[in-house]
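Entry type: protein chain
Record version: 2
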Amino acid sequence: MYHSMSTPDHAEGDSSEQSTKELRYEHPSGWLYLMKDSSEGLHLIIDTLLSASDREFTKSELAEAAGVSRHTVRAHLGTLLEHGIVQAVANGKRYQLNLDSPVTQEIFELNSAINAVGAGHVTIESDTGTVVDE
């Protein structure tokens, strides 16, 4: 499981030898813990599951649909299961997005908010980050 984020002032040991990035990885937030390997395809797997939320996948089918290797799916499946984003079905041979998970619901909310901004339904003030128009 992940640990709560600690700032360099609260980190144990000699922080002068560790970069801020190293300290962030040593004491990750929940978001960083989930996305720490996103360059390895996790973001593509989640995006695929979001776009096919009613579908069940084998590891191979998920890999093909996400455009990643089966190794990448296997590498991230434990994290997805651990956080309840994915659930095993068909005696553990298939996987699907866990629509009842609070984490999955938050991912849907974040995705919807980003889509609303991108589609021009919501305007964000670029200097302050506040909503100007809904």
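Comment: Residues 58 and 92 are 9 Å apart (CA to CA).
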